[in-house]
């Protein structure tokens, strides 16, 4: 068993790190300030083939897999969490098609998503179905060769800018979460629109909106799997994407640590760089230790899940590693960014410096793709079943 990344993955890490430093870092503060989706970076990532890393070659991706998606997201998040979300949200949006789609659906939709020609989104959350994802109220009623969808989604990453959405709706409310089904909805279908755009604490520049389905006809051919498969498809999707949020959290934390280390060596107080004081050294030591532990767990989860695709692992083990990675890494990102702000003192609190942005961005990693309370619940259940 090797603890090293392969040469190919190391090369990918170096290439993405350089691109992030040269092309993304100079835009990071501006994206946050203006809160406008960075189309230029989406194009850049598409050109570099970064949006199709999780998609097999037969569907137009590069097929390099989940560990590669994590590396890409980590390296971009080091300089801009919002920019890294372009890659992470694409992976989340296309995953239901990968895990639940027919051959025909995969061939129809995945190539344009893998190339980045089209953007996608994951439409699960509703005002009354957040952690309790099974209580989705959006309704889908079959009428001949279409389903008519009615309902409202909220907090949807890429809402209003995506071309393709997976929408979770109930085809049989009497069956609760076993009555949920998943549909591919294209942005131009009649009755489908984006509602309010949210103003957020962090990940500004990533667009988050409501979605409205008002008598929206969706071809029956766009049902993923069978009626009633929706909840399982949603959970299998999140099992495979939560490590990516873990990687995003590791990237944010590493970016904050790098900045704090440089600052501590330059900032002079009491006649010495503050890095020479043990109070600061101990903080930096704890930060780097936590980040490395989080990174190991994230890549352990990513490799485990990738290998599980070839059999061997139980669904419970997949859920456990996925949730542990996101839980631990996001808590580390929050701790580390708060401490990095502290190392900078008053400067850390100022918007001229990047650390308050990193701290605001870190917070969402403890919340989206399932709050960390839900991750703990998932982990505990895998032990107790
Ligand atoms: N894989 C496959 N099947 C699964 C599964 C998994 N990981 N987890 C559960 N299931 C199945 C179960 O086996 C069960 O089926 P059976 O009865 O046939 O065995 C069924 O689904 C119901 O499972 P539970 O009884 O565990 O359901 P629950 O309601 O008690 O709990 C939950 C489920 C884990 C709490 C789940 O609702 C959950 O993960 N909630 C969080 C939702 C979430 O992460 N939302 C994020 C939205 S996306 C986002 O944030 C991104 C963005 O764009 C902002």
Number of helices: 11
Which regions are unreliable across 5 or more consecutive residues at pLDDT < 50?
none
Q: Which overall shape is indicated by the principal axes computed on the Cα atoms?
A: globular
**Oligomeric description of these chains:** single chain
SS-based class: alpha+beta
Give the SSE order as H and E letters: HHHHHHEEEEEEEEHEEHHHH
Q: Quick check: average pLDDT?
A: 97
Q: Reading side by side through the largest sheet, how are the strands ordered?
A: 1-4-5-8
Rg measurement, Å: 21 Å
- Biggest sheet features: 4 strands, mixed
Give the cofactors and ligands: acetoacetyl-coenzyme A
Distance between the termini: 29 Å
**How many β-strand runs?**
10
Strand content: 15-25%
Helix content: 40-55%
Verbal overview:
This protein is α+β, with helices and mostly antiparallel strands and 385 residues long. 52% of the residues lie in helices and 15% in strands. It contains eleven helices and ten strands. It has helices at residues 7-24, 28-34, 39-47, 66-77, 81-100, 103-115, 230-266, 278-308, 315-344, 355-365, 372-384, and strands spanning 120-123, 139-143, 146-157, 164-170, 180-186, 192-197, 208-219, 223-224, 268-269, 272-273. It has a four-stranded mixed beta sheet with strand order 1-4-5-8. Strand 9 (268-269) and strand 10 form a beta hairpin. The longest helix has 37 residues, at 230-266.
